[in-house]
Amino acid sequence: xxxxxxxxxxxxxxxxxxxxxxxxxxxxxxxxxxxxxxxxxxxxxxxxxxxxxxxxxxxxxxxxxxxxxxxxxxxxxxxxxxxxxxxxxxxxxxxxxxxxxxxxxxxxxxxxxxxxxxxxxxxxxxxxxxxxxxxxxxxxxxxxxxxxxxxxxxxxxxxxxxxxxxxxxxxxxxxxxxxxxxxxxxxxxxxxxxxxxxxxxxxxxxxxxxxxxxxxx
Length: 217
Hints:
Blueprint: H1 2-25, H2 37-44, H3 48-60, E1 64-67, E2 71-74, H4 79-103, H5 106-125, H6 128-145, H7 149-167, H8 173-191, H9 195-216
Antiparallel strand pairs: 1-2
């Protein structure tokens, strides 16, 4: 009986985990924010069991941290730590662009283009939350285009960890439009199918993007 209850709660726990990851990635849950089990259970219409499972899984990934007094909260980083994480992320994103360019398929190109349309639509509407979601999806299409799920997961992990910090650089509509425009240049570099061109394009893109993120933090 206990096993059946656990099995039933697992899909719900994963769904809660996925939603919290998105909330953190787009900055809706800021660094240091304490997460309340009771409040989350009410939000998701669930018991505390799947909520607790989701929180523990995120803590195991380093996205959340546990503290004796403050409970479980969104991970915080010093400026030095954040700089080091951004440095690692910079290198992984460059590798993703290089590999994606060399392995680009018609389907991968279509997915990247479709994700960019969502970014442009949100940017032109001044929809910050919508753009942040679309921006995450845009980068995920590049990760998938590598054809390597291990590299894709590694890149995704850094995006999850840095989401709240990167979100701070988007303040006004012009920030969204500028980011969408930079996507266009990056896309063309990847679509060239030339690894060096794609690597250089992503290097330029990430250097500018992460410099703005550090300045905002």
